[in-house]
Design brief:
CATH topology of one domain: YefM-like fold
CATH class of one domain: Alpha Beta
Helix content: 25-40%
Radius of gyration: 23 Å
CATH superfamily of one domain: YefM-like domain
Largest sheet: 3 strands, mixed
Shape: elongated
Order of helices and strands: EHHEEHH
Number of helices: 4
CATH architecture of one domain: 3-Layer(aba) Sandwich
Length: 76
C-alpha cells in the first residue's frame, strides 16, 4: 500500500515539526511542505539500511591483500 502524502504549509510545519516527524518516521505519511499553496519540499522516512556499511572480509583478498597483518605487527 503506497504511503499517503499530505500537504502542510511551512508556517504550520514550524510549530508542529516534532509531531510531523513522528508521523513520517512511523511510515504513516509523507509530508509535502508548501508555500502559498505551491510545493517546496518533501519530507519522507529515511531508508533503513539492511546491510552493514562495510564488509567483514574483502570479497577478493588477492585484490586487496592482507590488511590485518600490518596492523597487528609489533611496533619497533
Amino acid at each position: 500500500m503506497p504511503m499517503k502524502t499530505i500537504e502542510v504549509p511551512i508556517a504550520e510545519a514550524r510549530t508542529d515539526l516534532c509531531a510531523i516527524l513522528k508521523r513520517v518516521e512511523s511510515g504513516e505519511v509523507r509530508i509535502c511542505l508548501t508555500s502559498h499553496g505551491r510545493p517546496k519540499a518533501l519530507i519522507i522516512p529515511y531508508p533503513s539500511q539492511s546491510r552493514p556499511w562495510r564488509a567483514a572480509k574483502p570479497a577478493d583478498p588477492k585484490r586487496y591483500g592482507d590488511l590485518q597483518s600490518p596492523v597487528l605487527e609489533e611496533w619497533e
